[in-house]
């Protein structure tokens, strides 16, 4: 069975001791790992949380985003250099967490648009930044898995076809793809076709409902999703990502204006969905 993870952004983007009882309960449910947002938390909190996960036998993955001052596709060389330095700082924090994977849309800046379609120079700039930190991440034991987002949150990579094109330009084994069923539900024609297209580069997978609530409560076709994952023999993480208003600052930053589900509803029912689907399709 693939490892099952849960992204604690359902509770908070901040890392602190407040997360420790949540992690204990996730472990009790049966989760193999937890995923954490790497942003503005105090540096010492990453080691604290990472140690606790190690102590209770919970593995770790991480997620981050880039802002306008650290935009890998900026036409300004100093901004791209800042992006590289920011990614190295994030990789260091991922290492502090003992994270195996760093996912997220860090190929470009979150919700920064150019009022046009992406251009070749932007794919080349992004690839150069990602390639430039790939060995640094490898030395830290962290696999980089940039993520395609929906059209309302980025414009460089909305689809698996675009993400695959970018990764071929990066051309580094430590930079693979991430698939998120929430974004794919918006941008892809067929989930199975998109999974099969990205399969040779696929390194991380988010199980997310169409409204970011409890997986299985909406209209994402998880039968199609899990069958396709089995067909391509995907062996990586299956990590639930759902959002709430529990952390208002983070919720405001990503346009979450209501609670879609309670976090423990997501965690408990989502875990059962993944287990059921995994058994059904032999994952």
UniProtKB/TrEMBL annotation:
It comes from Algoriphagus jejuensis. Residues 23-251 form the Xylose isomerase-like TIM barrel domain. Keywords: Isomerase. Gene3D superfamilies: Divalent-metal-dependent TIM barrel enzymes. SUPFAM superfamilies: Xylose isomerase-like (SSF51658). PANTHER family: 3-DEHYDRO-D-GULOSIDE 4-EPIMERASE-RELATED (PTHR43489:SF7), ISOMERASE (PTHR43489). One of its GO terms (molecular function) is isomerase activity. This is Sugar phosphate isomerase/epimerase. The keyword Membrane does not apply. The keyword Isomerase applies. The lineage of its organism: Bacteria, Pseudomonadati, Bacteroidota, Cytophagia, Cytophagales. InterPro entries: Sugar_Epim/Isomerase (IPR050417), Xyl_isomerase-like_sf (IPR036237), Xyl_isomerase-like_TIM-brl (IPR013022).
């Amino acid at each position: 069975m693939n490892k099952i993870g849960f992204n604690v952004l359902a509770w908070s983007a901040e890392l602190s001791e407040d997360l420790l009882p949540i992690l204990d309960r996730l472990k009790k449910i049966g989760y193999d790992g937890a995923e954490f947002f790497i942003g503005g938390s105090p540096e010492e909190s990453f080691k604290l949380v990472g140690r606790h996960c190690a102590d209770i036998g919970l593995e770790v993955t991480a997620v981050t985003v880039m802002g306008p001052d650290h935009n890998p596709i900026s036409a300004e060389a100093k901004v791209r250099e800042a992006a590289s330095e920011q990614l190295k700082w994030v990789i260091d924090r991922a290492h502090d967490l003992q994270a195996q994977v760093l996912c997220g849309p860090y190929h470009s800046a979150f919700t920064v648009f150019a009022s046009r379609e992406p251009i070749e120079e932007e794919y080349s700039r992004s690839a150069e930044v990602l390639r430039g930190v790939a060995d640094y991440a490898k030395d830290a034991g962290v696999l980089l898995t940039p993520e395609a987002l929906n059209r309302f949150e980025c414009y460089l990579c909305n689809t698996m076809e675009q993400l695959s094109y970018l990764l071929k330009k990066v051309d580094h084994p430590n930079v693979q793809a991430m698939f998120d069923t929430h974004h794919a539900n918006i941008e892809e024609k067929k989930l199975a076709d998109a999974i099969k297209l990205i399969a040779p580069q696929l390194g991380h997978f988010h199980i997310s409902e169409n409204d970011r609530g409890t997986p299985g409560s909406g209209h994402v076709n998880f039968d199609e999703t899990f069958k396709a994952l089995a067909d391509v023999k995907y062996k990586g993480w299956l990590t639930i990502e759902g959002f709430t208003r529990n952390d208002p600052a983070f919720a405001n930053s990503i346009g979450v204006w209501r609670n879609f589900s309670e976090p423990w509803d997501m965690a408990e029912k989502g875990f059962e969905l993944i287990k059921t689907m995994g058994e059904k399709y032999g994952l």
